[in-house]
Specification:
about 475 residues; alpha/beta; binds fe (ii) ion
Length: about 475
């Protein structure tokens, strides 16, 4: 019989008791893909749907709360208890649930307060222990005091739910040798029992866009670990953290393939709910996007998430273009960008030009600077009267939505994006510098190329619907 799972990640629940209105909250929210004020309403809506659905279990891949706030944890545990009355729930916590480095905040008017009570690592280790406990086969205590667990999810399916928080080399996310050995033992035990086994960890196991973006999002020794797990029989792992919906494959030198499904963040665009149906040796993966949710008695549709994420760029550009210097400096600060106030006039003029800049004008400018070799002239001509900014926003959204936004792009826009992506590499190849210097710069430009190409034309399995052999 088929086993049906729903997998979600990065819920980042933020209790409304911590303040979700006023200037300080607005600046925070406007600089972040996460829709914090709406997190509880989104979670309620998704849990309601999943509770009434035909799924056999719900898996949650970490970052349950925004920054480990006690109020957020308490609300989440109640929501999870209500869901568990209808469906078994298996979850892992991750760094945002405890390792907050004083990050937890509350907002009152224009002021930010850091006096928020959090749930520390020691307490968190047991805080969600009740979920899945009746189906637990084995557990391992990490050097950080957290638990990795192996669960019996259905008659023939096991789940390795591992906590990778700061247990890797140099205190990075990952696994100590003993932890990895325990994981290998669970994989071997499942094989011996003739059972299928899948896994979930919070940080990335495989790079899914480019090392340029993914290096800090991945566990330490990620490819060595992927090789060890795949060669021990793991074929499918769910990960979160990057907030990027993307499916990636890797084959070990011994020829064993492992698929990583990066689940994407429920708390923001595109609010994905991943479904997995296991039938015989095949697992069918399909992503459903949240159509909308009820908030304060009104329905917010899926455009809400898209606009919220687009606003991360748009609010900044619009503020700079408007001439409101203080608003611009505040928004830059919220993005973590420190700009000398003396540079504001340049930013203001640049933002005003960017608002109106057409593809034709931008293309001509690039081609003028590169003696006509920058971007394809026919492609620029095809879009010459279109504004550039909406295309930039679409590419930005592709980072989060598995390149769904690229599907609607005209071919000419994709051609221009690819040309822009290869431009740094082409420029470097003409530079009068030594071969070894050139090669080291080419490593970076190669990663830029890979990133743009992956965003425009994703390689490997489809990010929204795929079949995995188990
Ligand atoms: Fe997250
Ligand atoms: Fe995370």
């Amino acid at each position: 019989m088929a086993t049906k799972l729903a997998i979600i990640s990065d819920l980042h629940h933020f209790s409304k008791t911590l303040g979700t209105a006023g200037r300080a909250y607005e600046l925070r929210s406007g600089s972040d893909q996460k829709a914090l004020a709406e997190s509880g309403d989104v979670i309620d809506s998704v849990f309601r749907t999943l509770g009434e659905s035909d799924v056999d279990a719900v898996l949650i891949v970490g970052d349950i709360t925004n920054d480990g706030e006690r109020a957020s944890h308490e609300e989440m545990r109640e929501k999870l208890r209500a869901l568990r009355l209808k469906k078994p729930v298996y979850l892992i916590t991750s760094t945002h649930d405890w390792c907050t480095d004083g990050n937890a905040r509350r907002y009152v008017g224009a002021e930010v307060f850091h006096d928020v009570e959090t749930v520390g690592g020691e307490e968190l280790a047991d805080y969600y222990d009740e979920f899945g406990k009746e189906n637990e086969i084995s557990r391992y205590k990490t050097d950080r005091g957290f638990y990795s667990r192996c669960f019996q999810v259905s008659d023939d399916l096991r789940l390795l739910a591992v906590n990778d928080d700061m247990d890797g080399e140099g205190g990075r996310s990952g696994y100590s040798p003993a932890h990895l050995n325990w994981m290998r033992e669970q994989l071997a035990a499942a094989k011996k029992a003739g059972q299928k086994i899948i896994a979930m960890e919070h940080h990335l196991l495989l790079y899914n866009l480019s090392p340029l973006i993914n290096k800090g999002q991945s566990i330490s020794n990620n490819y060595e670990t992927a090789e060890a797990l795949a060669d021990a029989g793991l074929k499918l792992i769910f990960v979160g953290h990057s907030h990027m919906l993307r499916t990636t494959e890797y084959a070990t030198p011994a020829g064993n393939k492992i698929t990583q499904i990066n689940v994407g963040a429920l708390c923001g665009y595109p609010a994905p709910v991943n479904r997995l149906t296991m039938e015989g040796p095949k697992a069918y993966h399909k992503v459903e996007f949240l159509d909308g949710f009820m908030a304060n008695g009104a329905f917010a549709d899926k455009e809400f998430f898209r606009q919220h994420t687009a606003n991360v760029l748009l609010h900044l550009v619009n503020a700079a273009a408007s001439g409101n210097k203080q608003d611009t400096m505040d928004r830059l600060d919220a993005h973590g960008i420190r700009l000398k106030e003396s540079l504001y006039p340049v930013l203001h003029i640049g933002a005003k030009k960017l608002q109106k800049l057409t593809v034709g004008r931008a293309g001509r400018l690039v081609n003028c600077l590169t003696l006509g070799k920058g971007v394809d002239r026919a492609a620029v001509k095809a879009l010459k009267n279109d504004r550039l900014l909406p295309y930039v926003i679409d590419l930005f959204l592709c980072v989060f939505d598995g390149s769904e936004s690229a599907k609607a792009l005209p071919d000419a826009a994709k051609t221009i994006a690819r040309d822009v992506g290869t431009l740094p590499g082409r420029v470097v190849s003409k530079l009068p510098v030594g071969r070894s210097r050139k090669e080291s710069i080419r490593k970076i430009t190669g990663q830029i190329e890979a990133l743009v190409f992956e965003l425009v034309d994703p390689a490997g399995p489809d990010n929204i619907e795929s079949v995995i052999e188990l």
